[in-house]
C-alpha cells in the first residue's frame, strides 16, 4: 500500500510525502529541479515491496506548498525538509537516490547526516554549481539570475511566456530528439516532466535554479564515508559525463555505472541496466552491512506536527 501524507516543515511549508513498506533498507527518492517523480516511473516497480520507499515533493514542487519566502528554496533547506520527513517516518539508515539536482541533495545529506545514511546513488547530476557545466558552458549560469529578476518583476508576463514555450510541440520535439534519446524513451514517459513544469510557478523554478547554482559540496566529497554508486549517461548534455567522473574520483571507493547512449534521463532510457546495477550495489555494498532492517515507514507515535494531515 502507498501512503500519502502532508507534513509541515519547520517554516510551515506543506510537504507532500509518499511511502511504502518493505523488508530491506529504505530507498529515498530525491528529484531533480522542476520534477515531481517522473524519473522514478520504471525504478519503483523494480524495488517496491523489496525495500521501503520514500518520496518527498520538494517545496514549491508537485503537491507540496510554495514557501512564503522564495529565498528558502535552497539545497540546505531541502536537506532539512528531508531530515524532518525521515524523523516523522522513523526511517533510517536509508539509501538516498538523487537525480540531477537531487544529487546535490543526497551528497549534502550524506555529509550533514552521516549516521542516517547507508548508501547514496547520485544519478546524472553534479556536486554543485550545475548551471556552470550545462552543455559544457557557463552561459546558463550567467543568464539565470537575469531570468529570475524578470520573473520576479513581471510574474504574470513571465508565467505566460513560460506556459507558451512549454506547451509548444516544437519545444517537446527538440527536447526529445536533442536533449534525450528519443529512440529509447516514449512520450508517455517524458511528457510528465513538461506537464509538471507547466504547473509550476516560474518564480519558484528560477529561484531554486539560482540557489542550486550557488551550492556546492565539491570540496567535501572526500569526507563521504558511505557506499556510493554513481550513475551517468554517456550522452548526458545537462550533466556532462566528465562531471560524474570527477565526483567518482573524489569520493572514496565510489563506483560508477555508465549507461551506454544514455542521456540526462538514463533511468527511463535503459531501465533494466540501471535496475540490475542498483540491485547489485544494494546487495553487495548495503544489505551486506545493514542486513534486513524491516523498516516500516509509518509515522512515529506523536511525531506528527499538529498541522500535519495524513491520507492513506
Give a structural overview.
With 312 residues, the chain is of the alpha/beta class. The chain has a single domain, classed as 3-Layer(aba) Sandwich (Rossmann fold). Helix content is 41%, strand content 15%. The chain is built from eleven helices and nine strands. The protein has helices at 44-47, 75-89, 101-112, 139-153, 155-167, 169-179, 187-199, 202-213, 241-250, 266-269, 271-290; strands at residues 3-8, 14-20, 27-30, 53-56, 94-99, 117-123, 229-233, 255-259, 309-311. The strands form two sheets. A seven-stranded mixed beta sheet has the order 6-5-3-4-2-1-9, with helices on both faces. It has a two-stranded parallel ribbon with strand order 7-8. Helix 2 (75-89) crosses helix 3 (101-112) and helix 5 packs antiparallel against helix 7 (187-199). The N and C termini lie close together (8 Å). Mean pLDDT is 92; it is low at 293-312.
Secondary structure: elements and pairs:
Layout: E1 3-8, E2 14-20, E3 27-30, H1 44-47, E4 53-56, H2 75-89, E5 94-99, H3 101-112, E6 117-123, H4 139-153, H5 155-167, H6 169-179, H7 187-199, H8 202-213, E7 229-233, H9 241-250, E8 255-259, H10 266-269, H11 271-290, E9 309-311
Parallel strand pairs: 3-4, 3-5, 5-6, 7-8
Antiparallel strand pairs: 1-2, 1-9, 2-4
Q: What would the average pLDDT be, to the nearest integer?
A: 92
Structural class: alpha/beta
The CATH homologous superfamily is termed: Alpha/Beta hydrolase fold, catalytic domain
User: Which descriptor suits the 3D outline?
Assistant: globular
CATH architecture level-2 label: 3-Layer(aba) Sandwich
- Return the domain count: 1
Order of helices and strands: EEEHEHEHEHHHHHEHEHHE
Using only C-alpha atoms, the radius of gyration works out to 18 Å
CATH class: Alpha Beta
Indicate the CATH topology. Answer: Rossmann fold
Strand % is: 15-25%
The total count of helices amounts to: 11
